[in-house]
């Protein structure tokens, strides 16, 4: 099979270039070039796009493990975004049905999205019918456009589109700064109407159950349950090893953790860490963290502490349990303090 690659260079610095892939999946170069003309995006005024080059499909370079029949998971690095990891810092999965494939999350850059596409293609030629984005954060969505170009329909929370549109410029500026040239060609996807409550996806003899939750880790959290293997993809409603990140409601998050285990999963795939955890044991550390955050923030508010003082004291007993604690925990205290001071 053949794919199309091209060079993208910065208009402001034409020597800074990256090679990008268009996911055409064609039997020959004539078909590949024709398909590329159909799906090539508008790269924008800041980039110079080179000519299309037809190549034999490259290897992905991204490792996926089969954790249950037809269920594949990639372990993202437990790290902040850097030029070296290209935003590959969140878990990604895909599920293969009789007719098609659903991908769950798309990574933090176009480069990661390309690697996900190629990894799927190393295992199956079935169409990628759906891309399920578990929430709005950039480390989960910046690779989405590659899979959309490959034919996937984006599925997410009803608040996902609005949340991404409101944050697109901030996310793109931040990740470009953290990643450098490796971010070239990446952008926040445009998504349509999402799930208000529950939805089903039929991959052909394989049903996925999606639930859109109340504001918890974020305002746009969705879980994915594969009925065939009872595998639950939680997105960032569950963290393992990696410090939790609160961009929603600590109270809502605790409620969701109580509610999301019906039907009981055989295993869960968290948004970070793992990548496979037992149920319900896999929730123990996160629930403990959130309870400490809630209770000690409440105590700080009742004692009349200012936010800066609360950040220095709340939840410090958790520091040894989580990677990237110093990066994320102060933000979590800020979010919890803002929520709980008005209880």
Automatic annotation (TrEMBL):
Gene Ontology MF terms in the entry = hydroxyacylglutathione hydrolase activity
**Which terms under GO biological process does the entry name?**
antibiotic catabolic process
SUPFAM superfamilies given in the database record: Metallo-hydrolase/oxidoreductase
* Keyword Cell cycle recorded: no
Q: Which UniProt keywords apply?
A: Hydrolase
What EC number(s) does this enzyme carry?
Answer: 3.1.2.6
Q: Which residues belong to any copy of the Metallo-beta-lactamase domain?
A: 89-272
Q: Hydrolase: present as a keyword of the record?
A: yes
Q: So what family is this one in?
A: Belongs to the metallo-beta-lactamase superfamily. Class-B beta-lactamase family.
Q: What is this protein called?
A: Hydroxyacylglutathione hydrolase
